[in-house]
Amino acid sequence: MNTSADPIRGYLSAVERETSALPADRRQELLADLAEHIEVTRAERPDVAIGEVLAELGDPRTIAATALAETGNIAAGAPAGGVSAPARRGKVHPLVPLLMLTLSLPFMMIFPDLPGPLFGVLFRIIGAVLLCTSVHWTAVQKTTGVLLTALLPTAVIVTWNLSSGGPKGGTPALLANLMALALIAGTAAWLWRARRA
User: Fold this and answer.
1) Is 14 helix (H, G, I), strand (E, B) or coil?
2) Does the model's pTM come out above 0.85?
3) Which of these, 16, 22, 182, 190, has the minimum number of CB atoms within 10 Å of its CB?
4) Measuring CA to CA, which residue among 192, 186, 176 is closest to residue 148?
């Protein structure tokens, strides 16, 4: 008779086989972490099938390749299990995309002539790309960040410039820019607090 422990035992055995190149202490630590994660997930969500919990963890080969890559034990061109290690994204400090996104609008406001808006748009695009490729935030946080710091302010600015109140400056334009800056800075502060170490 199969119990719910059988798939778990099989999964952990597969991870153990795939991580045979790891030092024994690191392999045991990894297996203990996975077992604890499974146990906590099952306690928090008892209605979820064990197969779904294991699927959320990922393929044992992928877990092994990541663990091996992190410890630097993969020989060049010969990854364990025939699975290549996932490509490591460049590690950019989390402050870089946030500063680029936040400073894009003041750059446009301070230098309203041609180089200012061009640099502001480039800052916004590069900041959004760095935010999306960063390892410091989840997909939902990245999407929210790009929407609130890049897309929404850009849509408001384009709408403002195409409407009758557009390029004329004055108090309404200053207030609109300050509100957009507050939105961008607030979102950047939220992203900074929500980042992963």
Assistant:
1) helix
2) no
3) 182
4) 186
